[in-house]
Amino acid sequence: xxxxxxxxxxxxxxxxxxxxxxxxxxxxxxxxxxxxxxxxxxxxxxxxxxxxxxxxxxxxxxxxxxxxxxxxxxxxxxxxxxxxxxxxxxxxxxxxxxxxxxxxxxxxxxxxxxxxxxxxxxxxxxxxxxxxxxxxxxxxxxxxxxxxxxxxxxxxxxxxxxxxxxxxxxxxxxxxxxxxxxxxxxxxxxxxxxxxxxxxxxx
Length: 203
Ligand SMILES: [Zn+2]
Fold this sequence. Notes:
- 33% of the residues lie in helices and 14% in strands.
- By secondary structure, it is an alpha/beta fold.
- It has one domain (38-193): Zn peptidases (Aminopeptidase, 3-Layer(aba) Sandwich), CATH 3.40.630.10.
- The two termini are 27 Å apart.
- The protein binds zinc ion.
């Protein structure tokens, strides 16, 4: 059976398998809850990094904790097509919500990399560290950092245990002072596209 799979079918199967693997990184057994900079969040970031590297991308983390994989184009320093989504979740979220938008392009890049295909632009797949606002009651932290619109007032927001976002970021090795440098220069961005499934609990 496997021998008859087309590359597209194979990539599709890989995406579905990866979604299952990534869903293991949860704070609550039996459901998927993964909030900003928790152990589950670190585990998911490490897994995404591994898949991106295996797909031929160089991977970096920015000061917000975004996981950014870059697949170089034919010209060095070419502007990048940005794609990606968030890998934090709401409480009892669906495994495809956000996560699909990260793993799908990584699987596509892995396929192109195997075929030796390069484009006249780079591709950057961004795993946005935070969108849902569950832990610190502030949303879109990852994309705001990249857009250069991060509101530093939210660094003083506290989680349920009374820790500030600033403390939690520092403890995880992310320096809030580096947030301005996380912004992407307009001329380095070709476009941004996102695959996104809005999904509630169940899977
Ligand atoms: Zn979402």
